[in-house]
Design goal:
This protein is mainly α. The protein is 60% helix and 0% strand.
Length: 331
């Protein structure tokens, strides 16, 4: 018996009855022989972690555009925090941690430069629209490895696709990510906003802190405990009081941080940069070879959208500058 087979057998002995077992995965689009060391979900986790799109997350905005402080979140640190919260929930519920972790690590691979401002700009420009969760699936299916994709399992791709709103994931592990994502970003966005001086900890209404606590640790713990205690049947949710506190906290952040003129001042420049880059890279001559093929088969707008959405904040600004800003002439 191989190590991966022993792991799959151990899953049957230790995970709860509603967990997703690696031996029962719906598999990959392209068949692959099983790995002797890792289950299919462990392999997916590793493929995501070693991908170029995962590494680029370290230079993509979470909330504050290109912050200069070392301790502000990026899209990568957000992803790692989501993964940690999701694994905590999965372990407590005796669900498949490997599947949970793979979905968490891949959920934002398709996010644009400049955070949701970049996403809104691309959605307005691309005739087919743009949603980062759909692009995350496209990254792992169509764009990674120079167009070959990562050939991930159905369960991981489904969890990535369904991590925001609307249709829920097929698996309880995938459904965990929706709440882990919310718990992570609400709490680290408060942390970053306090660090930036946009809000003070004391600004959070007492009606919220009385339910979930005053500190980041207390809030995260309250939310996780609520999810664990109310999700034993696989329907991942919180109790009524915590749900109300979550939505009240979300409303507070929208009014105080996400729509704050001071915090979002630089975002007014984003649509122009994205539009200029999108129009420029509609010319396939400027695209990498694997995207030239996409331009030929799926259209130049799709190929340009793929390229621009994959850029980091730094690279997008650098490209814009190289293309549109005149250079000094040297004799």
């Amino acid at each position: 018996m191989t190590i991966s087979e022993k792991t799959a057998k151990l899953e049957k002995l230790t995970l709860c009855s509603i967990a997703t077992f690696s031996a029962e995965s719906k598999g990959r689009v392209i068949f692959e022989e099983d790995c002797a060391l890792r289950t299919c979900f462990q392999r997916d986790r590793d493929r995501i972690t070693h991908s170029k799109s995962f590494r680029r997350l370290k230079h993509k905005t979470q909330v504050f555009l290109s912050p200069e402080g070392d301790h502000y979140r990026t899209r990568l640190t957000h992803t790692l925090e989501v993964s940690q919260i999701a694994r905590t929930i999965a372990r407590a519920l005796r669900l498949n941690e490997d599947l949970t972790e793979a979905v968490a690590l891949g959920h934002d691979l398709g996010h644009t430069p400049f955070g949701h401002a970049g996403e809104r700009a691309l959605a307005a420009l691309n005739p087919a629209g743009f949603k980062h969760y759909e692009q995350s699936v496209r990254v792992v299916e169509r764009l990674e490895k120079d167009g070959r994709g990562l050939n991930l399992t159905h369960e991981v791709k489904n969890g990535i696709l369904c991590h925001t709103s609307g249709t829920e994931a097929d698996t309880p592990e995938g459904r965990i990510i929706r709440w882990a994502d919310k718990i992570a970003y609400l709490n680290h966005d408060i942390d970053d906003a306090v660090r930036a001086g946009v809000i003070a900890q004391s600004d959070i209404p007492k009606s919220i802190t009385e339910v979930i606590g005053n500190t980041k640790t207390e809030r995260i713990t309250s939310f996780i405990l609520s999810v664990v205690n109310n999700s034993l049947d696989g329907n991942i949710t919180m109790d009524k009081d915590c749900l109300e506190a979550y939505y009240a906290l979300s409303d507070f952040l929208f009014s105080s941080v996400y729509l704050n003129d001071y915090a979002k001042f630089e975002e007014r420049k984003v649509p122009h940069i994205i539009e200029c880059l999108f129009e420029h890279f509609k010319n396939p001559d400027y695209l990498p070879n694997h995207l030239k093929l996409i331009a030929e088969k799926e259209g130049k707008e799709t190929a340009s959208c793929d390229y621009v959405s994959g850029m980091t904040d730094h690279y997008a600004v650098e490209c814009f500058s190289d293309i549109y800003i005149p250079k000094s002439w040297n004799s």
